[in-house]
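Each record in this resource describes a single protein on a pair of labelled lines. With that in mind, the following record should read easily:

===
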Amino acid sequence: MHYLSEEHVFIFLVQLFVVLTAAKILGSLFHKKGMPSLAGEIIAGIILGPTIFGRFFPHLHSELFPSDLIQQNMLETVSWIGLLYLLLVTGFEVHLSSALKNGSKAFVIALIGILVPFVITFLSFYWQPDMARYMGPETDKLSFTVFLSIAASIGALAVIARVLHDLEIIKSDLGFLTLSVFIVNDLIGWLLFAVYIGFVSQKGNPDLSPVFQTMGLALLFGAFSLTIGSRLVGAATKRLYKMDLPQPATIVTFISLIAIVCGAATQWIGVHAIIGFFFAGIMAGNANEISERTREIISQMVHSVFVPVFFASIALKVDFIKNIDIYITILFTVIAISGKFAGAWIGARMIKVPKDDALSLGIAFITGGAMEIILGLLALELGIISEITYVAIVFGAVLSSVLVGPLLSISIKSRDSFLIGSYLHRESIITELKGNNKNAVISELCSKISPVLKNISCSDIQKAVYEREELMGTGMEKGLAVPHGRLDKLDKPVIAFGRSYGGVDWDSADGSPAHFIFMILLPQKDENKQVQILASIARTLSQPEYQSFLLQTSDHERIYQSLKKRLKENSPKRKK
């Protein structure tokens, strides 16, 4: 029987310190440069693993990462905890009500967005000769090609959510549609993978009844999670709040327990524990009783420690120089990126999404990110792919994640320019809001802005803004809220501004109350200006010194002129 020795614990702590430090430093550097943190975290693992450190300093590498099985399993266990919790917090982003309210749009784009890259990848790889070196020991050509097709079709919800947040457009209609499409994409992609694992696990068994049993149980579990599960989690959460227990610690523990139970259930079914953690995240994310702030606390904990260790660890065992194959790496990367772009763009144009938004949506869809890497890791563990193919998948996922932010930013900046400050009216500014909740504040701003519009009633404005607020909350971080709506009778955008000294709860991710509320009204058919308006407002209020100025200044005219000037400075630059 093996027992942990003091040396095991000491080496494990040294490993954890080195891996976490390197991953956080490189991840932060990449993030500051506008690239996803996961790219830096993976590179940290490549540097520490056999690719760099092991190649040039083999003795030191073997001292830090010995071949002892117990020692390897200790760090790997922490890595797996990171993987499981990453799927949990990814599930938080899957707001089913939002996807459903976007109706057929999200479903059509997501379905075409999966189908096109799946077909392209399958046709590209199935007819390739001499694929044996790319396949794992436990698969055949058909299973291998189907897996690559699934991996090339799935998106990265967590990555694109972060990119939209960084570009300050996550609360826009484009951001809302993009997230809705990714939600449906993730659900379809993971269900496809669950069914795929069910078939692979029964390979060689002439009796297909276990396969269909696994598929049936997996679909039943998913249906339960997406319907009754969220309500049960919400009801239990409400009861826990009434028991006067320490908060948010109790809710965090409760969500963790739900995730563990769901992970155990899906592992027992035969479709892997990560599926269970993903659906647990969906249940918690769709329970209105759990605040955005509580989910953010869990997300920050996971991304600050466990996720960096996971992404660094996936490169600790693989020699990326030895196992890189230029042909399959380039082929998979090009097919995955171009296939997902084409699928999303075609789906968007099919349902008459404007050209500018369709282009941005197609670019957003190119990223495979963490989900592609996770699928690759599981396939490697199951013997479906070789290390060569795994390296190709990681490369494609990292490159697409690095490219998506800059390309999406370019697509937005290339749109027609205009002066945002001209849409702000002197009469629609309230220097001291009286409402203490968002509905009251929206009502105040509506009463102030309706005389400016003349032919549109206050009730019509309220209805449009309330309906949009129900689809997706517009509370942003750092005390900013941007409620908005679309109106048929409007011919150009109109902006109103209200200031609240005490702040209003707008359920923002950072938990801060909203002190600065911009109400944005847009024409029903104007699809291009909203994204730029929201991004410009966020930039205008990004500096703490300017926020202090707005809070301390009591002069109405001075606030108006200052906002007008700042919005003009932050307007999209005119094309030369």
